[in-house]
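Our consortium's second objective concerns turning raw sequence data into structural hypotheses that experimental partners can test. To show how far this objective has progressed, the report includes one record in full. It was chosen at random from the queue rather than selected for favorable results. The single chain below, 261 residues long, was entered without modification.
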Amino acid sequence: MIMLKKTSRTFYIPISYLELGLKEAVTSAYLCMRAIDEIEDHKELTDEVKVKLLLGIHDIFKSEDTMVTRTQHLLSPYQEILPAVTMQIDDWALLCPSSCAPIVYRYIAKMSLHMAQWVQSGWNIHTEEDLDRYTYSVAGMVGELLSELWLWHDGTQSDSTKAIAFGRGLQAVNILRNREEDLHRGVDFYPDGWGFKEMQQYTRRNLQIADSYIADLKDGPALKFCKIPLSLAHATVNLISAGGSKLTRDAVLKIVNRVTG
């Protein structure tokens, strides 16, 4: 939870409200995904090394055998430049309850493969379909994973297509917010001919589907969890549209208090 708080203010709060078992599962999944995301976005690693590491993690999580030994062997040559959240990916994997570990590991393997493919392609995004594929790879499948974890935990049923839009909408907010930073590192997630208006419409469209996703959820931990990041996403889009960039800590706490009662 200390590492989670260091790496994500947005997800630390809703995860901290989860029940035992589900809390460990979601924490494990989030930190593993953050670990590989740090590889994909790393400023010092070459694309060749990124692909090697991401494909290596894909193979390890797909087989699950000797995970600790294999991850450390893979990552240790880069321990001086990789962040702690990445170097400890085996710790986060082992945190996951054994009964749902196959679900989490399957998605970590899948996301690692997709990220490696995006690195290889140079993150080439020209059409809305390209953007959909990218936002699915790094966030839409997180929605799918969460839906499987809700079902595993207490039988909560959810719409997996809407779950993808939930993850996709949260990622689109990040794309809006990090526009200048992404361009500075040579990556443009906007399809050809798109400006702020089109990306904002794309974001709001997915967030509307995400609203429908959580409206279908029964009362319980899944609904309580999803309400927080979705409310923060809506507030962030509104803020960006008004010329701001990031919610203040006080604004975040007010939103969380309103959502959680």
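The partners drew two points from this record. The chain has a mean pLDDT of 95. Residues 64 and 105 are 8 Å apart (CA to CA). Both points have been shared with the crystallography group to help prioritize constructs.
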